[in-house]
Specification:
- The chain has 85 residues and is mainly beta.
- The chain has a single domain, classed as PRC-barrel domain (SH3 type barrels), CATH 2.30.30.240.
- Helix content is 6%, strand content 52%.
- The protein has one helix and six strands, in the order αββββββ.
- The radius of gyration is 14 Å and the shape is globular.
Length: 85
């Protein structure tokens, strides 16, 4: 799969079903060349006038499924330990 294919997909959080945005960049592992994280650019508006952009880093391990149109990720949920499960 090409990076340009990734950039066309919407990123959806499986924890709450909300769309996080689209991929702005990727982080690569220098040693292996593998993707280590996705950088998502979120765009929101304050008071309907001013654009506000924030980046969200999604580690590769948090990707649940890569589909034809979307990438499902786990973001914002509390980490649980083995004892809590």
């Amino acid at each position: 799969m090409r990076i340009s294919d990734f950039q066309l997909k919407d990123i959806v959080n499986v924890t709450n079903g909300k769309k996080l945005g689209r991929i702005a960049d990727i982080e690569l592992n220098n040693a292996t060349g593998a993707i280590s994280a996705l950088v998502i650019e979120q765009t929101g508006k304050k008071f309907g006038l001013f654009g506000k952009e924030e980046e969200v880093i999604i580690p590769w391990i948090k990707i649940v499924k890569i589909g034809g149109d979307v990438i499902l990720v786990r973001h914002g949920e509390l980490e649980t330990t083995e004892d809590e499960r």
